[in-house]
Each structure stands twice: as structure tokens, then as C-alpha cells.
Design brief:
1-deoxy-D-xylulose-5-phosphate reductoisomerase activity; binds NADPH dihydro-nicotinamide-adenine-dinucleotide phosphate; binds 1-deoxy-D-xylulose-5-phosphate; about 45% helix; single chain; globular; binds manganese (II) ion; Rna Polymerase Sigma Factor, Chain: A; about 375 residues; alpha/beta
Length: about 375
Amino acid sequence: MKKISLLGSTGSIGTQTLDVIRAHQNEFQLVSLSFGRNMELGLQQVHEFKPEVVSVLTKDMADKLKVELPANIKVYYGEEGLIEAAAFEKSDMLINAVMGSVGLKPTLAAIEAGKDIGIANKETLVTAGHIVTEEANKYGVKLIPVDSEHSAIYQCLHGDVEKEVRRLILTASGGSFRDKSLAELEGVTVKEALNHPNWNMGAKITIDSATMMNKGLEVIEARWLFDMDYEQIDVILHKESIIHSMVEYIDGSVLAHLGTPDMRVPIQYAMSYPKRLDLHGGEKLNLWEVGTLHFEDPDLERFRCLKLAFEAGKVGGTAPTVLNAANEVAVDAFLNGKIPFLGIDHFVEKALSSHSIIKAPSLNDIVMVDIETRRKVQTYLN
Ligand SMILES: NC(=O)C1=CN([C@@H]2O[C@H](COP(=O)(O)OP(=O)(O)OC[C@H]3O[C@@H](n4cnc5c(N)ncnc54)[C@H](OP(=O)(O)O)[C@@H]3O)[C@@H](O)[C@H]2O)C=CC1
Ligand SMILES: CC(=O)[C@@H](O)[C@H](O)COP(=O)(O)O
Ligand SMILES: [Mn+2]
């Protein structure tokens, strides 16, 4: 029985992780969880799964929970709470499904406590990929991707990766505005942006998908997860989201992972690895019905966030930290009606161009740059 800690239990990945645990009660047991503000759902989850540790966003929420829950359930809050839930001594594996770079310190705490990590929280790898991967190597823990593209690559990689892999090809749906020109993006609404054609996901990643910053973050995520140079990572538009990504080998062979768009597949695989389990209620891929798959080169002037992410990744140091923090603030501002859709890449670019790069940043440098960037973008917004 694998004991699981889960950060972000009330979110899109979090709830699907619980679906997997519910469907495989002989394989997995939830021992700790954290959520943010969604008390109603969070409390329901605690009653159903009976974890020993629970963490919430604020002290007020924690105080309320302590009254409601039996005394044997430990309740924490804030960043310390995330760390307690992530590194809980009884767990074997952390599924990090929290949104944003707030996931960094809990991930490091779990690694130091010897837990394998199923990582959905890509912002952590973008902001501090060199530190997370170095720590995972040092403590001998597995960093298993949950992001669908990276799970696909993980499943297609074998042999002598350093010598035999030519490149990774990440597929991108193009998001909710994939068929619109740059000019047509003027005045698009939040509701339109949240209407992803293939995936039902949390709000932030759905907007990232529409700007294609999501693919940019995924390029940086792939660089760290698979230790590849940026020259070895390509992005291809594939509007059906049936091929989840590909690996090209030096003999020209291309291995791809295909399936219907269902995040329970990569979540479950990260948890059961190296075994595969039945996916209860999973839809079978019927290529005869799909008929045709489409592929296209992304236009980097149209998808400016993807270009900014490639550039920040190649510059390295604290550039990806700035890219990520500025994007988190700008997306939140768009979601709250404070800036237009096209303001997102504008503010990210502005933050990047005014930043003095720190070349090999420590954890402390990253935390400081993350805070400074958020503050700076807030002042632009004001
Ligand atoms: N959704 C998807 O299909 C995919 C998601 N990912 C990645 O997985 C991560 C999660 O995405 P998704 O599930 O869509 O996001 P959601 O917004 O649906 O869920 C986020 C979760 O994190 C919690 N949370 C948010 N902020 C904080 C905070 N400051 N402290 C503690 N908890 C917090 C939320 O709590 P609450 O709601 O209670 O406030 C919620 O449980 C992201 O990094 C995303 O990029 C990657 C691939 C696919
Ligand atoms: C499901 C998943 O992994 C998302 O990151 C998804 O890839 C978003 O789709 P696009 O970014 O390709 O639109
Ligand atoms: Mn993805």
C-alpha cells in the first residue's frame, strides 16, 4: 500500500488524484492533504479519506477545522502547513498539485524527507529546476512527471538517453484562441479564454494554455526533468491533444504516447510507476473515429509567451523565476478583469527586461526574486 500526501486536493489535479485513490483502495492510501480556500470540498475530502494531517490557507480556517475534526487529525496552515503535509513522516510519495511557485519549499522539504514526488506543479520546476533536480539526485528520490506531455515523454524514454535521444517534441493544443489572429485577440473575454477545447483544468493553467505560456513553462520543465538542452526541445501544434508528446531518437525513430485527453492517466501512472493499473471508467482511444490528426509549427510572434519562455530558459539563472512570477501575477490580474488578455505577455516582457539576472541562484535568491517580481508587476498594474 503506497501512502500518499497530496497538495492542492480541491483543484483539478487534486480531485482527479483522489478519484484514482478512491478507485484503487488496495494500492493507495491518502495520509495527508492540503487545500486553499475551498473549505466545503476540503472538509468533505477529509471526512471521506481520513488523512492524519491537513493543511489550509489561513489560521482562521485552521482554527475552524480544529473544532470540526477529531483531535487525532493534525491541522496546519500557510507555508509551514504545506511543508508539514508534504513531508509527513508516514507518507511514501507526494503528489504536488498546488498551483504556483508556492509549491517550491514543500517539494524540497518532501525530497529531503526521502519522498518520491509526482509533480504536476510545473511552476516549481520552472522557478528552481536546477535546485529541485539536484536535491532529488542527492536524496535519491524519484521525480515523476504528472504533466501529460512530460508523462508521455517519461513513458517513451528508454535506452541510453544521453547518447540516443535527438530531441523531445512537446505537443500543444494552442488553447482556447488557437484559431484567432493576434488582432482578433483584442478584447477577448475571461469566459472565452477559460473555454479550453480539449482539457478541463484549473483557471490559471487554462489561461496559460491560451497564451501558450503553458507550453513555454513545459519547455523549461522538460529541460530539467529530462536534462536536455533547449536546442533539443521542440514544440508542435497538434489541436486534437491525442498525441501527448514524442521522443525522437538518433536513428530517426519517433516514439509517441497517445490517448484520449484524461489527466487520470498520467496521475495514476506517476502513482503506480513502474506498474500500470486499470483506469476505471477511462475512455478508449478510437483512432478510426478520430480519423485525422493535425500538426503545425507555432508562430512565435503570435504566441509571444512561448517565445519569452524559450528566451528566459536559454538565459537561465533567475530569468525563468521572473518569467513565472510575472506570469502568475499577470494571469491573476487578467482573471480579475484588471488587464486585457494581451496585457499578459506585455507585463511578463516588461518584468524580464528590467531584471538583472543572477546566474546560479541559491534558493534564497529565487525566493527574493520571486517576491520582488510580484511586487514590481503589481506596481505596473497599479
Ligand atoms: N489541471 C490540469 O489538468 C493540469 C494541471 N497542471 C498543473 O498542476 C497544478 C495544479 O493545477 P490545477 O489542478 O489545474 O489548479 P487548480 O486551480 O484547479 O487547483 C489548485 C489547487 O491548489 C490550491 N491552492 C492554490 N493556491 C494555494 C496556496 N497559496 N496555498 C495552498 N493551496 C493553494 C487550491 O486550493 P483551493 O481551490 O481550495 O483554494 C487547489 O486545491 C498547476 O501547477 C498546473 O500547471 C499540469 C498539467 C495538467
Ligand atoms: C493536460 C495538460 O498537461 C495541460 O498542460 C495541457 O497540456 C494543456 O494543453 P495545451 O497547453 O497544449 O493547450
Ligand atoms: Mn501539460
